[in-house]
Write a structure and sequence with these properties.
433 residues, alpha+beta, Alpha-Beta Plaits, five-stranded antiparallel sheet, four-stranded antiparallel sheet
């Protein structure tokens, strides 16, 4: 895919609290994004990450999330219409960051990956490619339902990964799962379901070193499961939490847990088994498994020796795994972090719709979190998961997502400033956390 940022990216200040934009990407098939909103989500997440990284460099530490609200276009291009909540004092910096982020190769790489054809794209594409009619404009709000007939889908092309040094890395082959043999799901107790998913072709070291790769796999499985649960009338969100990985350079085991009430467990098990067979899951694993610069040192040693590959396990204590720099140099791992919850965690009711908090974590280097927003995302996701698990135990089935809006601190500690949309009666439940 490609974007002419000067011509095809319009950004506008709508009012004192909102910035809107339209991004036109050539080579993106609009029907695919209209039919599958998770593709739009991937594009929005990447643009958010790029924008927030640039904003932090100019001293704006408030997270700005790109929300894609509509798509339009044809089989040759897609327009992504988005909105971003933004206070007036940050709007100029946001506009500059959006324009600069548009030129980043990571954005077009994400669009290219999200645009790859899948089984449910085949019928619409075959008709478009065999007729010369003017392409119909498609919007995400009125996406056409897929027809029953399916043409043979084109094999998705995995783009070759490019290292930050400009060197082309050899792409990994497509991953695979034998769902009957390699996916075990178990009811642990009346409130928890656990599972192990073994994916062939996934290099375990890559997932152990970079937890965000596990997060991508967990998010896709959550999305697939919740989509199936809704069709069965279960409207409670069930989030897959990958708690450990194990394996070698030929396969990875993802050990996960899902908070789930007893009355929904049978439906959840059925949805998990069915979701395992969805091509979107293996596509996500394939994409997450692609090599990067920081994988090179470990892989070169593994691929040039004939010794049995060592089993790699991603456990809760990161200090046991030595970090590797992009130059191949082994970095000294950080010591375990700590929180004095009585002194260093303040939670406040801001208004009838919002709870805010500040979590001070000792042993966290603030610059690292300021530079890389995905690290804050991992902390927020984990806190959200823990809170929602406890809320469900007391009968509150509404998901509450922790949004980290700012970080502060020094090399010895980090303050995570967060906000949570809420309803007034739930505060008394949340106080116990």
């Amino acid at each position: 895919t490609a974007v002419d940022c000067d011509k095809d990216h319009q950004v506008t200040v709508k009012d004192d609290k909102t910035v809107t934009g339209v991004l036109r990407v050539k080579g993106c098939h609009a029907t695919r994004f209209a039919r599958k909103p998770t593709r739009c989500g991937n594009v929005g997440n990447t643009l958010s990450s790029l924008v927030n990284g640039r904003l932090k460099k100019v001293g704006v530490n408030v997270a700005h999330n790109v929300q894609i609200i509509k798509t339009a276009g044809d089989k040759k291009q897609t327009e992504f219409h988005y909105t971003i909540p933004c206070q007036k004092e940050h709007q100029k910096a946001l506009l500059d960051s959006l324009k600069d982020s548009c030129k980043d190769k990571e954005l077009t790489d994400t669009c290219t990956h999200a645009n790859q054809p899948e089984d449910d794209d085949s019928s619409s594409e075959s008709s478009e490619e065999t007729t010369k009619a003017t392409p119909v404009k498609v919007t995400q709000k009125d996406a056409p339902a897929p027809t029953a007939a399916h043409a043979t889908p084109a094999a998705p092309v995995t783009p070759k990964p490019i290292s930050k040094t400009g060197k082309t890395l050899k792409p990994s082959k497509p991953t695979a799962v034998d769902c009957d043999k390699d996916h075990q799901v178990t009811v642990k107790d009346d409130k928890t379901v656990t599972g192990v998913l073994r994916v062939k072709g996934c290099h375990a070291t890559r997932f152990a070193r970079k937890p965000t790769r596990c997060g991508n796999v967990g998010n896709t499985l959550s999305s697939l499961v919740n989509g199936r649960l809704k069709k069965l009338g279960v409207n409670v969100a069930h989030n897959v939490q990958i708690v450990k990985t194990a394996g070698d350079k030929k396969q990875t085991e993802f050990h996960y847990t899902i908070p789930c009430q007893k009355e929904h467990q049978k439906a959840l098990l059925d949805s998990l088994k069915d979701s395992c067979k969805d091509k979107e899951l293996t596509d996500t694993c394939t994409h997450a498994n692609q090599p990067e610069d920081d994988d090179s040192s470990s892989e070169s040693s593994e691929e040039t020796t004939k010794a049995a590959p060592a089993k790699v396990t991603q456990k809760a204590a990161p200090a046991t795994t030595k970090a590797t720099g992009k130059s191949g140099k082994t970095l000294k791992p950080s010591k375990p972090t700590a929180v004095d919850c009585d002194k260093d965690h303040q939670v406040t009711v801001k208004d009838d719709k919002t709870v805010t908090g500040v979590l001070r974590v000792k042993g966290c280097h603030a610059t690292r979190f300021a530079r890389k927003p995905t690290r804050c995302g991992s902390v927020g996701d984990k806190l959200s998961s823990l809170v929602n698990g406890r809320l469900k135990k007391v009968g509150v089935n509404v998901a509450h997502n922790v949004q980290i809006v700012k970080t502060a601190g020094d090399k010895k500690q980090t303050e995570f400033h967060y906000t949570i949309p809420w309803r007034w009666f739930e505060y008394y439940v949340m106080k116990s956390f």
